[in-house]
Every structure is written in structure tokens, then in C-alpha cells.
Write a structure and sequence with these properties.
two-stranded antiparallel ribbon; 8-stranded mixed beta sheet; Rossmann fold; 13 helices; 10 strands; about 325 residues; about 40% helix; alpha/beta
Amino acid sequence: MRIATFKSQSVNNERHIISNIFLKDLIQNYKSLEKNKSFKNNKDVKIIYISNFLKLNTLEFNELIENPIINSLDTYSTKTGKNILKKSTKKASYLFFIIELNSNCTIKDGKIINNLVNKIIKKSRKTGISIGFNIKENQKYFANIMTSSKDLNDDIANILISNLYKTKYAKYSYIYDKVCEKLDKNFIINNYCDFRDNKCVANRDTDNIERDNGCCHSFIRNKSIGPSNSTEELTLCKHLGDDKRCTIKSISCKFFVCQYLKRKGVYFDILDNFLLRSIFNRKQLDVIHINFFKTEDEIVKKLITTEYNLMPHKLFILFKMHLIDNYWKKIPEKK
């Protein structure tokens, strides 16, 4: 059986495969899978179809599987989510996702897909239902994604794969890595910083001609002359290696763009990032936005502790709760 693969990821010692083949090819693949001894009949499989325009031909779909679970993102509600969750794990041995999205896909759609898939996968683990078909040993074909663009295809695939990880730390780390990879690729291809002899284009073209290493600097407060007369000094980031390369992966630093490049039209807004917006809430996005010079481990742990923070957003920012080095955490507890 041939499956056109566009994304493959090893999770929990199993390789999970996603394709973007058309439905008629998927039907043919399924017919081949039916011959597999692991299938008693096609009632063993629950197909969860998610779309924001419901283009699917019902007759064609019934040829693939009986009673598909169809979910329209346009009419989605908490009640329909509960019904889908109940149906998807009832009398089934295998679950398979089909997602079709057009160019009108919104951040709200991304959040719904993330929450729905997360709940379905969690419940399937409790009930012993397998996510995907076994193609070979330790290889599972578990989703078919068709969208209006390659970027959206990749983002939806990453949302699905991230929910296969069993811990919040592993899920967030996966998303963190994928966003960093995309930002790195963008900067490298376009050569925005244009380093020459350790000086970036902004340093060369402005008054900072004597400063090396671009924006890998931060201000630290010097209190050696007394707290009332404290001053700020510019210091090189401690994570910059001897080879002038960063030794950590700080997502906040990767999103940062200096004023010089902004005037040239280079800008990356976290609020425009579909993948991050689909996974994280507003407070978590604030954590990603501002914690410069921090390691992946530090930021991911902060994202986890921030997820269920009930403080109003304005107070959350006012008390700097989005910062890893938070003043309030340093106040000793009363004995």
C-alpha cells in the first residue's frame, strides 16, 4: 500500500504519519487496509472529519466508512464537542482524522481543532483505542490534512502531532521547536542581519559601529554605587558562545527585530502566528514575547505554570507575572 507522506514524526517510540492525499486515494488505501487482519470490519474504525466548509461528498465518504463523525467548525459549540468526544470513542478500535480547511480558516478554528483533538486523544488512551492505522511495526498513519496552503498544512499537522505527546512539557517543547525552526529558516534565507566580521547591518549603518554581535546584548542594573544612584550597563549575553553563535534556543530572542530592520519592513508579530495562537492563551503569548536570553527549559516551564493563571490580564502585566525573573517571587515568605 502506497501512502503519500508530507509529515512524519516519531512520538512515544512510534512513527506517526500524516498525508495530504485526496479522499479518493484515501478510500483506496482504506480498502487495502481492510484486508489487514487487525481489522474485523469497518465499524472498528472511527473517522473524525473536521472542516470549515464541509465540501465532503457524503456518498463518497460512506464508501470509505460507515457513519463518519462530521464536525463543522462554523457551527461548533461546547455541546457538539461533547457529542463528538462521546461518539469518537464508542465501539471503536481505531481513530483517524481527516481535516479539510479553506483560506477562511481562523485562529478560532485552530483553537477548536487543538482542544478537540487533545480531548479525543486523551480519552482514546484511557479506553485503549489506537490513534491511527498500523502500516508497519511502530508506524501509524493517523491523519489526512488538506488545506489552502503549505504553511497552514504544516501548522495543522504540528497541532495534531503535538497532542500525541503524553506530557504538557513535551507538547509545548515540540511547538516551541517548530516555531524556532521556522523563524531560523526565515532569517537565514533572507539574511536580514547580514553579519560581516561579527557586525550586523544595523551596527554598520548606525552610530553603534563599535559594537559587535548585533542585538545579543542586555542592560543590567549596577547597584555598586548605591540603590538610589543605580545605573544600567550594556552587557553581552552570557549564552553567546566562543564561536559567536547562540548556545541556547530563546524563542523571545528569535521573535525580536531591532528598530533598524523594522524601518526596513521586517517584523514578526506573535499575534499573527497561527500555530502559537492555536495552542497558547494571551498570558502565555506574553511569556513568549518578553523573556529574552532565557533557555527553552525555562520558558516552557513558565508556559506551563502560566496556563491556568486566573489573574486579570492587566494585573498579570502590571505585576510582571509574565517575566521568568519576577520580583515578587524573590520576596521571602514570612515565617
